[in-house]
Amino acid sequence: MRAGAVGRALVRLLRRGRSWAACERGSFTAELAAGLPALMLLLVAGLTAVNAVGTRVGCVDAAREAALAAARGESGEVAGQRYAPDGAEVSVTVAGDRVTATVRAPVRTFGALLPRLSVSGQADRGRAGATASVRRAAAAAGPAGPAPGAW
Hints:
The chain has 151 residues and is α+β, with helices and mostly antiparallel strands. It is 56% helix and 18% strand. The protein has five helices and three strands; from the N terminus they run H-H-H-H-E-E-E-H. Strands 1-2-3 form a three-stranded antiparallel sheet. A hairpin with a 2-residue loop joins strand 1 (89-95) and strand 2. Helix 3 (27-71) runs antiparallel to helix 4 (76-83). Mean pLDDT is 78; it is low at 130-134.
């Protein structure tokens, strides 16, 4: 549209007694009605992501405590449940001189129709008794490292 045509359209509107702003009445409401659902969806997704990160940190902390307790010879599941988020599952496995604890917890989503999420945390530790026996064996074998001048 050329500048002259815009000016003529404005003059016609003003002659009828209506201002340019009167023609734009209701446009904000229409734009808000179109954009507000998208804004709310972004807000729900952001809050769910923050909640998932917080739950993951709790799972990692609980797994670390469970692995440490199991390495000391205590019940790792009990220690993990003490620190785990609500509804979490704690599992501790011992393989040789290594203890592995895994904590899996559901994430509460902000919206009933959103899919269910779950996060997990894992921690590994060396067993206390196994570490002490390795130290004793190393001390009995003598100094470790290459012979002097081997480099």
